[in-house]
Amino acid sequence: MIRVVLPQHLRTLAGVDGEVLLAVDAPVTQRSILDALEARYPMLCGTIRDHATRKRRPLVRFFACAEDVSHESPDAPLPDAIARGDEPFIVIGAVAGG
Q: How far apart are the C-alpha atoms of 56 and 86, rounded to whole Å?
């Protein structure tokens, strides 16, 4: 099972507390995790990725094993620790302002 940590506002929207556990077939990638997340929680569609392009929204970041993987290919395999569920895939809303 893949562990996914969402920011508080997305947990509230999805109606979940804490980490989300998802069954994701190999290879485990950003795209496969987000596809599974949106399939299980359709209310999250469009919040993390754009509806039309399916690209990551500009103020959203993804972390895997303490590394920012936001700018990696969405089809690049994630580390084995994510695939095994040892480490969570983390979705964070970037801080912006001035």
A: 24
Q: What is the pTM of this model?
A: 0.93
H/E/C letters for each residue in 27-47? CCEHHHHHHHHHHHCHHHCCC
Alpha carbon separation from 91 to 25, 73, 98 (Å, rounded): 20, 16, 23
Token pair of 38 as six digits: 């949106």
Q: What residues have CB less than 8 Å from 44, skipping those under 6 apart?
A: 10, 13, 14, 37, 38
Could you tell me which CATH number the domain at 2-93 has?
A: 3.10.20.30
First to last CA, the chain: 39
Q: Please report the pLDDT score of residue 97 as a whole number.
A: 65
Give dist(CA 9, CA 26) in Å, integer: 29
